[in-house]
Design a protein that fits this description.
Helix content is about 45%, strand content about 20%. It has a seven-stranded mixed sheet with strand order 3-2-1-4-5-7-6, sandwiched between helices. The longest helix is centred in the N-terminal third of the chain and has 17 residues. The radius of gyration is 17 Å and the shape is globular.
Amino acid sequence: MKKNAHYKKQLSYFGDEFGHKTEYKLASWQKSYIERIKKYMLGDSYKRKVLIDIATGSGYVAVEMAKLGLNVIATDLTPEAIENLKKYKKKFSLLNLKLIKCYAEKIPLPDDSVDYIVANAILEHIPNERQAINEWKRILKPGGKMFITVPLKYQYIWPFLWLPNYVHDKRIGHLRRYDLKTLKYRFKLPVIKVFYSGHLIKILGIILGMILRTDKYDEYFEEKDKKYQNNIYGANNISVILKNEK
C-alpha cells in the first residue's frame, strides 16, 4: 500500500474513533502507562521540562503530563484528536499544553529541543520507520529519554491468539511488530527499562467486560497483568524506555 493511501485509511479509522469521544476519562490500562512514565522515565526534577507526546490519539498522556507541570507538546495527524485535546486543554486550564497537527516523521521542532518523548502505539503504523526514528532522535536532547510502545512479534503470543491479532493488525493499520532485539537495532540507543503488557489474564478480562458490558473489573485485571510485566511470552505489547547518551 502506498504511503498516501495508508495515511488516508488511518485518518478515516482514527477520525471515526476519536470523533465519538465525548468525555475525558482514564481507563485502567492508561493509568498504568502514566504510572510507568512517571516512575521510570521522568525522575524527580521533571517540572517545566519539555515532553512531546507523538501521535497523542486520545490525549491522555499529554493531559496527565501537563497536569504534572511539564511543558507538553502533543502532535497528531487526526483532526478529531486535535479538536478533543483543545477541549481538554480548556477544561483543565492547561496553558502548558501545545498542540501541533503534523506527521510523526516530520515534526516542526528544532534539534535537541525536548527532554522526553512518548510514542505509544504509533511506530508500527508508519510506512517510513527509519525516517520517524531519525526524526525523534533529532529532536531529543542529550540525556533525554523516550518511552516507546509497540505490538510484540507473533512468536511470543499464544498461538490461539495469532488470528485475532492478525485481523486486528489489518483492521487498525499495523505494518510490523517488534521485540527487544529489533528495537535495540532500530534505535541504536541504550534501553534502561522494558515492560510487557497485554497478557492472557488481561485478554480474558477484556472479553469478560465485553460480555457483561461493564468496566468494573478492569482495574483488577490490569493489576494482574502488571504482575507479569517482566514476562515476554504470552504478552501482546512491548514498551521500552531509551536514553539518548550522545
